[in-house]
């Protein structure tokens, strides 16, 4: 009975406090009509059944990983899967992994490249305000500009950065969509070489 009591105490202290966060994350990630409650219950059951509870460092990461793997299994069984649903699976990662760090670095490099294309004054204002958190007044003094001109430069820089990022995302989406269509055509025998 002692092992059962220990397991139950561990479950209540380490896993159960994260049930609400998992449910909330799944509701945001899963498409309407998806049985989130069933997935949460199955994740909790599998966490409870863990063989070596002493080797589980964080309950949140463990529970979210179980849920993510269950979702992937569900997707494998489904014949049609929404692209948004697949993309939202990444929101179930609760810890910083090497892959997440590399992705963040790539995004930072892309943002840096976009910032480098900004007009000189817009770029300088953007960096001073958004990176170094310098006040509008201080930027105006440093650059010998009026505060309103600094605000206009920042607004233009933000608009140009947002536009460039949006265009990049649309280009990525178009490439993914084209690849998906080609793969579907190959599966259906429509993409045979002519």
Summarize the structure.
The protein has 2 domains: 2-92, no CATH class; 98-188, Winged helix-like DNA-binding domain superfamily/Winged helix DNA-binding domain (Arc Repressor Mutant, subunit A), CATH 1.10.10.10. It is built from 9 helices and no strands.
Explain what the structure shows.
The chain is mostly helical. It folds into 2 domains: 2-92, no CATH class; 98-188, Arc Repressor Mutant, subunit A. The protein has 9 helices and no strands. Helix 2 packs antiparallel against helix 3 and helix 8 crosses helix 9. The longest helix has 42 residues, at 147-188. It is elongated and about 75 Å long. The N and C termini lie far apart (70 Å). Residues 79-83 have low confidence and may be disordered.
Q: Could you outline the blueprint of secondary structure elements for this entry?
A:
Blueprint: H1 2-15, H2 19-29, H3 36-48, H4 59-77, H5 83-88, H6 98-116, H7 120-131, H8 136-143, H9 147-188
Helix pairs in contact: 2-3, 3-4, 7-9, 8-9
């Amino acid at each position: 009975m002692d092992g059962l009591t220990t397991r139950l105490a561990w479950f209540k202290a380490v896993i159960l406090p994260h049930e609400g966060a998992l449910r909330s994350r799944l509701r945001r990630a899963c498409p309407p009509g998806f049985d989130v409650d069933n997935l949460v219950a199955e994740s909790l059951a599998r966490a409870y059944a863990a063989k070596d509870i002493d080797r589980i460092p964080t309950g949140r990461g463990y529970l979210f990983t179980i849920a993510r793997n269950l979702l992937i299994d569900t997707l494998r069984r489904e014949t049609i899967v929404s692209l948004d649903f697949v993309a939202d699976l990444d929101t179930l990662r609760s810890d910083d992994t090497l892959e997440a760090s590399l992705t963040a670095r790539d995004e930072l490099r892309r943002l840096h490249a976009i910032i480098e294309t900004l007009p000189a004054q817009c770029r300088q204002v953007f960096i001073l305000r958004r990176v170094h958190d310098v006040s509008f007044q201080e930027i105006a003094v440093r650059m010998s500009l009026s505060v309103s001109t600094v605000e206009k430069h920042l607004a233009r820089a933000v608009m140009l950065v947002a536009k460039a990022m949006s265009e990049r995302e649309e280009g990525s989406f178009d490439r993914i969509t084209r690849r998906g269509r080609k793969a579907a055509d190959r599966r259906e025998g429509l993409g045979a070489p002519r």
